[in-house]
Specification:
The protein is an alpha/beta fold. Helices cover 44% and strands 18% of the residues. It is built from eleven helices and ten strands. A hairpin with a 4-residue loop joins β6 and β7 (143-148). α5 (165-175) packs parallel to α7 and α5 runs antiparallel to α8 (236-261). The structure holds 5'-O-[(R)-(carboxyoxy)(hydroxy)phosphoryl]adenosine (KG4) and zinc ion.
Length: 336
Amino acid sequence: MEKDVYILGIETSCDETAAAIVKNGTEIVSNVVASQIESHRRFGGVVPEIASRHHVEQMTIVLEQAFAEAEVTWESIDAIAVTEGPGLVGALLVGVNAAKGAAFAKQKPLVGVHHIAGHIYANRLEQEFEFPLLALIVSGGHTELVLMRDHGNYELIGETRDDAAGEAYDKVARMLDLPYPGGPGIDRLAAEGEESITFPRAWLDEGSYDFSFSGLKSSVINTIHNGKQRGDELKAADIAASFQASVVDVLTAKTVKAAKAHNVKQVIVAGGVAANKGLRTAMEEQFARAEIPLLIPPLQLCTDNAAMIAAAGAVAYEQEKRSELDLNAHASLELH
Ligand code: KG4
Ligand code: ZN
């Protein structure tokens, strides 16, 4: 029987300090996330300096907890996987340095992981992949369509040209006086409202799988301003429902089109916005109709965590990809 492989994952790219241990790339042994949302909320968004400081404070605690919960010792760890980018550089550096320090002290191989690869691999903790597969990554920083023909093989076929979907959610939420992060609040309001306003849908050029959300965001902001000036009270729930309908329409239609064009065997939706109920429902309906299996991870695996980094790292480790101790953090890193 082959020996089990244990990967320690570390993630600090944004506002969650996370450490996890994953067995054989598919099984969560422990998954610890320390969220900083409360600290950033009063600023209405993530403040990079505050994020870095919290990561420094939390990193060791989270690591110790990941080992304690897993009941696994350092000796059993085969490699350390860490998010090397993209993200906030000061935040990433904390995780990268923790991983490098541990790799050196414990003499373990080091594997740098792309944050988006992590979001995709969150799904493998639920179900084995079948290729080719198409992944839609929708988070606060990303809106991307990635085609995978095999493990560890990523082809970016579409991306946002301006704001990420989550960013649009957060900005519109701010206009509606909802707390940060705004996605969950809009999602909740949207369920109570009617799609009474037709906001634009940015389809972009024929055949393109790229996205654009800044026009939609401006249109929502203008509608709110104009409404106020006219003294015409628009219901926040209707604005949320109308905004969400536009985002969901474009995301769903482009993903279905790309999935069919590439004849994929599976479709994955990942990242924080994958928690969105409206998006989940629309995707489930569309892919049931297209008869293509759809995978959406449970909520705690949609948002940033380290189990997903360990899962992606496990594949890179098996493929003998290694990082050296000069590994650096990269705010914008190409998917590789
Ligand atoms: O993946 P994630 O945790 O962090 C990044 O890597 O960015 O995604 C965070 C984003 C935020 O913009 C947040 O508003 C959004 O995910 N989000 C949602 C929902 N839950 C979180 N957006 C829409 N609907 C939700 N239910
Ligand atoms: Zn993320």
